[in-house]
Amino acid sequence: MAKKSKKQQPGGTPATVALTAAGAAYTVHSYDHDPAHPSYGEEAAEAMGVSPDRVFKTLVADVDGTLTVAVVPVAGQLDLKALAAAVGGKRAAMADPALAERTTGYVRGGISPLGQRKRLPTVLDTSASAHATICVSAGRRGLEVELAPEDLAELTEAVLAPVSRA
Fold first, then answer.
1. Which residues fall within 8 angstroms of residue 158, CB to CB, at 6 or more apart?
2. pLDDT tens digits for 101-124?
3. How far is CA 25 from CA 14, 121, 126, 148, 165, in A?
4. Torsion sign, CA atoms 115, 18, 112, 142
5. pTM for this structure?
6. N- to C-terminal Cα distance for the chain?
7. What are the tens digits of pLDDT across the range 29-44?
């Protein structure tokens, strides 16, 4: 894992606290969230001036009764069959949003794969490996962290699998 490059600031989120505790290199990007924007992920990419294929959304699905996190590019969609297969399951469906919020400790549009209240099985789309760094939610709408995909996979104990589609 790369050395830490950003000091934790007071009032950090559980995601940034987890990154700091692990000594991971990361950069925080903040922007003014517009509640009227139709897509949290696309809004983040536009606000940061980053290609949507480098900004990843965190989705929570139910795979055979187990909540599972999928981290996929905002430019694509989650392939539920591929997600189920990646974790050895048979069926997957999007989780109830209220259950996802309670379980992760984050609100929709701000769910981070890092620092969740309860660690969930995580699958990172293989397309992340094509980039030196990717951006994921830092645990709040309008706040993203940029880090190496290898660090994200290590910190979340993620399985790498092709789980997104255009």
1. 71, 113, 122, 123, 124, 152
2. 999 999 998 999 999 999 999 999
3. 16, 23, 21, 8, 29
4. positive
5. 0.90
6. 30
7. 999 888 888 888 888 8
